[in-house]
Design goal:
By secondary structure, this protein is an all-alpha fold. The protein has a domain of about 180 residues: Orthogonal Bundle (ABC transporter involved in vitamin B12 uptake, BtuC), CATH 1.10.3470.10. The protein is built from 13 helices and no strands. α1 packs parallel to α7, α4 packs antiparallel against α10 and α11 runs parallel beside α13. It is globular and about 55 Å long. The termini are far apart.
C-alpha cells in the first residue's frame, strides 16, 4: 500500500476521500436530524438525469449533475413545504422520473458509455484535480454555512415552528440544507456512486447520533466516522482488488454492526 502512494491517482483518491467524508459527515448529520433522509435519497437518484444530460449534450458532467440535483432539491423543498401530506408520493415520482430521463438520454446518445457503472457505484480512483477543487470549495462552503448560521440551524433542526416564531426563516434554511445535500451527493457520487451515497450519508451519522449530546458534536463525530470508514474501505479495496464504493459502504455497515454489539453488551452488563 505504501508504494501505491507514489501514484497521482492514489493521492487524489485519498484527498477526495478526506474531503468528501467530512462534507458528507456534516451534511449527513443535518439531514438525519431534520428527517430528510428520504428526501436526500430522492435527490441522489434523480440526479442520474443530470448524468444523462451531460452524455447526450456533451456538457461537463459535474456541472450538469449539480444543476439537475439542485433543481430537484428546490422542487422537493417546495413540495415538502406546501404539500407535506403527499411528499412521499412526490419523492417517488421525482426519483423515478429523474432516473428515467437519464436512462433514455443515455440510450439516445451514440457510442459506448462504459463509464456509467462508475456513476452508479463510484470510481474514486478516477478522481481528477478539478474534482478535488470542486470538493474543496464545497467543503469550505459547508463549513462557513454551519459556522455562520449554527444557531439558526440548531433552532430549525429541533423545533422549526418555534424558530419561525422567533423570526428565523425556517423555509429558507430548510431549502439551503437540501441544496447543500444535493451538492454533497454530486461529489460523493465519485466516491461511492449515486446508489450507495445515502448509506455513506446515514451510517456514520447513526453512530454519531448515539454518542453525541449536541448537534455540533454529532457533526464532528459523523465526519470522523465517515473519514475512518472511507480510509479503511479504500485500503481494503486496494488490498483485495474490490470496488472502492461498495467496500467503503460494507466497511461502514460492519462498523455499525460492531457498535451495535458493543452497545448491546454494555446494556446487558
Amino acid at each position: 500500500m505504501i508504494e501505491a502512494l507514489s501514484y497521482d491517482f492514489v493521492q487524489n483518491a485519498l484527498i477526495a476521500g478526506v474531503l468528501v467524508s467530512i462534507s458528507i459527515g456534516i451534511i449527513g448529520a443535518l439531514v438525519v436530524v431534520n428527517r430528510m433522509v428520504f428526501l436526500a435519497g430522492g435527490i441522489a437518484h434523480s440526479s442520474y438525469g443530470g448524468i444523462g444530460l451531460a452524455i447526450y449534450f456533451g456538457i461537463p458532467m459535474a456541472l450538469s449533475t449539480s444543476l439537475f440535483a439542485v433543481a430537484s432539491a428546490l422542487l422537493i423543498s417546495w413540495l415538502s413545504i406546501y404539500h407535506k401530506n403527499r411528499i412521499d408520493s412526490f419523492i417517488g415520482l421525482i426519483w423515478a422520473v429523474g432516473m428515467a430521463i437519464g436512462i433514455v438520454l443515455v440510450d439516445l446518445s451514440p457510442g459506448y458509455h462504459g463509464d456509467l457503472m462508475s456513476y452508479l457505484f463510484g470510481s474514486i480512483m478516477a478522481v481528477s484535480h478539478s474534482d478535488i477543487w470542486i470538493m474543496t470549495i464545497l467543503l469550505i462552503t459547508i463549513l462557513l454555512f454551519v459556522h455562520i448560521f449554527y444557531r439558526e440551524i440548531l433552532a430549525i433542526s429541533y423545533d422549526s415552528e418555534y424558530a419561525s416564531l422567533r423570526g428565523i426563516k425556517s423555509h429558507l434554511f430548510y431549502t439551503l440544507i437540501l441544496v447543500l445535500s444535493a451538492l454533497s451527493v454530486v461529489v460523493a457520487i465519485k466516491v461511492v456512486g449515486l446508489i450507495l451515497v445515502i448509506a455513506m450519508m446515514t451510517i456514520p451519522t447513526f453512530i454519531a447520533e448515539k454518542l453525541s449530546k449536541s448537534l455540533y458534536m454529532m457533526m464532528i463525530l459523523s465526519a470522523l466516522f465517515a473519514f475512518v470508514f472511507t480510509m479503511l474501505g479504500l485500503i481494503l479495496s486496494y488490498i483485495f482488488d474490490l470496488t472502492s464504493g461498495a467496500t467503503i459502504i460494507l466497511t461502514s455497515a460492519f462498523g455499525m454492526g460492531v457498535y451495535g454489539v458493543i452497545s448491546y453488551i454494555k446494556s446487558r452488563i
